[in-house]
């Protein structure tokens, strides 16, 4: 059984070429030669421009918008590497699309996150490397090893430096809902500050109402911590409630994945949030960037994880 290939090769599809190039640069490697094109009827064509026989191949592709095109690009690239006799194939998926469809909420609903896991495995991937799955149990949907990186070790140091001169008792980390408490608690422990929770009621998809603020945020700088921001309605409503109901002095926010669909950018621009920090697991076009959005690179942590996977070393130290 081949545990890993003879060398590391990093390839990019069309969703996150910049992240892939930065990962390769961090590893001191050239980006692999490949081309992913779309025919006039929408079909995807992949051409691998170099030998991968016996190599440890890492294909970098977030399955963000357009989700289905990017997912198919990933699957077809994996199949191409498999048929080219790669030693081992790792799907590096900074953002895993369909992750919110991880269970049946109503009758006759699919579990699309499981279907996508099956597709990646059947395509020929030997391993998956991803970051901040919407539900951590999605790791169990795969029949292959999954290394699940976290965004908190990248986001927390940024705010630690930003508020380095501030008294710890004047800062509070806020979880936007009960489901994000574990993530927010880790964030608060890293900064050695207190924790608060927004109690909300979700009426339907992408619509929620803030009911109460659990914890003391009055007069403090509040940092909202979440895994992803989609339409930004929950985030902006929560930020407004933290100011008006909780009496916080300022509100900041951070998240691993900036999906930013629909009216998200307009809502963020008009919100009371002073700064929103995102990781670049999902690219934001330069023309859509806002002054209050700060992007941090995930390339260094993915590069270290790839090196550890290749050398058969544990990835868990990256969580510390």
From TrEMBL:
InterPro entries: PRib_PP_synth_CS (IPR000842), Pribosyltran_N (IPR029099), PRTase-like (IPR029057), PRTase_dom (IPR000836), Rib-P_diPkinase (IPR005946), Rib-P_diPkinase_bac (IPR037515). Binds 2 Mg(2+) ions per subunit. GO terms for molecular function: ATP binding; kinase activity; magnesium ion binding; ribose phosphate diphosphokinase activity. Residues 8-124 form the Ribose-phosphate pyrophosphokinase N-terminal domain. The active site is at 200. Pathway: Metabolic intermediate biosynthesis; 5-phospho-alpha-D-ribose 1-diphosphate biosynthesis; 5-phospho-alpha-D-ribose 1-diphosphate from D-ribose 5-phosphate (route I): step 1/1. ATP binds at residues 41-43, 100-101. Its cofactor is Mg(2+). One of its GO terms (biological process) is ribonucleoside monophosphate biosynthetic process. D-ribose 5-phosphate binds at residues 202, 226, 230-234. PANTHER family: RIBOSE-PHOSPHATE DIPHOSPHOKINASE FAMILY MEMBER, RIBOSE-PHOSPHATE PYROPHOSPHOKINASE 1, CHLOROPLASTIC. Involved in the biosynthesis of the central metabolite phospho-alpha-D-ribosyl-1-pyrophosphate (PRPP) via the transfer of pyrophosphoryl group from ATP to 1-hydroxyl of ribose-5-phosphate (Rib-5-P). Homohexamer. Belongs to the ribose-phosphate pyrophosphokinase family. Class I subfamily. This is Ribose-phosphate pyrophosphokinase.
